[in-house]
Amino acid sequence: xxAETLSIGIVQCxxxxxxxxxxxxxxxxxxxxxxxxxxxxxxxxxxxxPYFCREEKDSFFEWARPVEGNVTLARFQALAxxxxxxxxxxFFEKAGNAYYNTLAMVDADGALLGTYRxxxxxxxxxxxxxxxxxxxxxxxxxFETKAGKVGGAVCWxxxxxxxxxxxxxxxxxxxxxxxxxxxxxxxxxLDTRDRWRRAMVGHAVSNVIPVAASNRIGEEDxxxxxxxxxxxxxxGSFLAELGRDETGVRxxxxxxxxxxxxxxxxxxxxxxxxELYGVLTxxxxxxxx
Amino acid sequence: xxAETLSIGIVQCxxxxxxxxxxxxxxxxxxxxxxxxxxxxxxxxxxxxPYFCREEKDSFFEWARPVEGNVTLARFQALAxxxxxxxxxxFFEKAGNAYYNTLAMVDADGALLGTYRxxxxxxxxxxxxxxxxxxxxxxxxxFETKAGKVGGAVCWxxxxxxxxxxxxxxxxxxxxxxxxxxxxxxxxxLDTRDRWRRAMVGHAVSNVIPVAASNRIGEEDxxxxxxxxxxxxxxGSFLAELGRDETGVRxxxxxxxxxxxxxxxxxxxxxxxxELYGVLTxxxxxxxx
Lengths: 289, 289
Known about the structure:
Two copies of one chain form a homodimer.
Chain A: E1 5-12, H1 19-35, E2 40-42, H2 71-83, E3 89-95, E4 98-106, E5 112-117, E6 141-145, E7 148-152, H3 161-169, E8 174-178, H4 193-207, E9 211-214, E10 217-220, E11 223-226, E12 230-232, E13 238-241, E14 248-255, H5 256-266
Parallel strand pairs in A: 1-2, 7-8, 8-9
Antiparallel strand pairs in A: 1-14, 3-4, 4-5, 6-7, 9-12, 10-11, 12-13
Helix pairs in contact in A: 1-2, 3-4
């Protein structure tokens, strides 16, 4: 294992219990992934509790915690240091009167490198995130960790080619997406699993970059989370995956040096036309005048 | 068939013969697609001849033709009018001393709605397009045809999430990609077929839009074109496809009104953050100051 390879772990489990139970369940799996050689372990979104965004209920704001003094974050930092793994942590952040869906990037020595606040906030039956979270104000962030440059994003961000491309432009070696996604309460016949994967597989191919997503499993008050966590390689194939109701971890190793050469050789970044992309910075396609 | 549905045809064949033979072979298949109900027919890239970009040879510049007086374009216009189909035509354009890889959008009454010049130009062993084509100067274009709003792009553009998103922002109902892609002379072990499809499947899902790609088949001087033309639905599944060495057509019908509702309901465009996308307009990830 040289500095030019990266072993990526993904963790998948149910998260319906108490804050401490959930964190400890996840951390036990992180330990298992580290034992399997993982240098970076991706865990599910908002792992401290049930996916409360299923409904709009003001009592859930009490779940939020600031970065400073965050007990679960401290647990993640301690284990990251003990195991020597990079360990992004997804949590409900309270920042004064603003609340965010935040990813804290914990380096392999336990240091907090910084936070990313989820940029794209969904809203719809079963996923009422706009009630809870302000759209993130950090912009897209790539963290220089001891295991490589990690592009950190969260769940709904994963549907956005803009986010993936931005992280690749900012130098990411790998994209990680903590996730909470499952059934659609208003549309039980709609299974979004394959769309969810295909969007991220597209990012992997178009940016010639490995993509890792960790999702939860289990039923929470009628909402069934479909797991299916994966690591996709630069060709979009699944290097590792977990089932729809499987608790566990997977670890795969990618060769970052080979991928950088492959990315340059494909020429996608060479042939981009930024002068034609102004329309992407509009909401409705009107070219700015 | 109402104005709110769209029947999309794709055409696939070998194109190794003379200019007239190739055009007539393609137009016979267009006729077959129209017989099958197609209102829009997508044909392969640079269909008038072999894929000359395999090598850098100045004699191939003689293949180029201006828009005005273009005999093959006139043939396409005549057949479009006869059959009442929208018929984009991909050709090597000579515009004074500038040469482009151009798509002419022919409406169902035979009118030329305008041209799009391929924005992203590849370059590498077997695909030496930078020797022949200036990067397009038209920007991304959506054409209001009698069958719907057609986002027209060409081959290498298909790997760019920027292009697909731009066309969706500009109001496209469908994305079409005339293509010429196959084996890699410098890397015979590399089969790019699945990556090629996965990138466009990603566009279909992320933009909730049907995507149609037509590729050629057959061997040309050792380079094997892999066909595999397809229409992907908004969930990224293949609504229709052709094999790696199959000559023929496919026609599928999509419900544009239902897709517009589906696109709104998913909320991807609602939740975009244009103010964070400035980095996309850079070549190297440096935020402009």
